[in-house]
Amino acid sequence: MKNTLTFLKSFATDKDVASITPSSKYCVRKLCEHIDFTTTKTIVEYGGGTGVFTKHFLKQMSPDARLFVFETNDNFYKKLSEIQDERITVFHESVEEIMNLLPEQVVGAVDHVVSGIPFSFFDWEMKIDILGKTQQILRNEGSFLAYQTSGHLKKPLTEVFDNYTTDFCWKNIPPYFIYESVKD
Fold first, then answer.
1. Which SS3 state, helix, strand or coil, does residue 69 take?
2. Within 13 Å and on the Cβ side, how many CA atoms surround 51?
C-alpha cells in the first residue's frame, strides 16, 4: 500500500510519471521470463520507480552481478536509495546521461536494459537517442526489455535494433505491452 501511495503522490506532482500504481508481480514475472539470472552479470534499469523490479532483480541476481538504476523522480529516488545492497548503484539522473554515468568497463557489456520510462511521452528524436545509447551499452546478444502501455515503440525499435518481439501482460494496471529487442 505504501508503494501505491508513493506512486499516486508522484503521479499527481510529476508530469513524467505515467502510472498510478507500481507494476504487478505478474508483470515482473512476465518480463523476467526473458532474463537468465544464472548468466546475467549486469542489468541497467530505466525508471526504477518504487523498486518493484529492482528488488526482484536483486533477489534473483548472482552475488557478483551489478544493477544500475536511473530514476529522476525525487520520491522514487529516495526509496531506491534506501535499498541496502552493494550490487546496486542508483543515479538521480535521466537516462539521456547514461554514457557519462556508467563505468567505462560496463559500456558494451550490459546483459539487459529494462525500461519502465514512458517512451510515449518522448518525441521521435529523444526515443531514437535513448534507444541508440541503449544499443551502445548492451553486449552482443544483450536485450532491451520495456513495459509500455501501447504499441508506440515498434517503429523506433525497428529503426535502432532492426528487431523486436512483443508480449502482453493483462494482469497489471494498466495492462502492459512487453517489448524485447536484441542487439545483433
1. strand
2. 21
Q: Name beta bridge partners: 180.
A: 145, 165
State how far the Cα of 119 lies from the Cα of 149, in Å rounded to an integer.
Answer: 10
User: Residue type for 128, please?
Assistant: I
Report how far residue 147's alpha carbon sits from residue 48's, in angstroms, rounded to the nearest whole number: 12
Phi then psi for residue 181, to 5 deg, are: -125, 140
Q: What is the pTM of this model?
A: 0.89
Class for domain 2-182, per CATH?
Answer: alpha beta
Chain position carrying cell 541503449: 134
Q: Tens of pLDDT along 6-53?
A: 434 444 444 444 444 678 999 999 999 999 999 999 999 999 999 999
Residue extents of the structural domains in the chain: 2-182
Phi, psi of 113 (to 5 degrees): -115, 125
Contact, 109 vs 150, CB < 8 A?
A: no
- Pairwise CA distance, residues 156 & 125, whole Å: 10
Element (H, E) at 148: strand 138-148
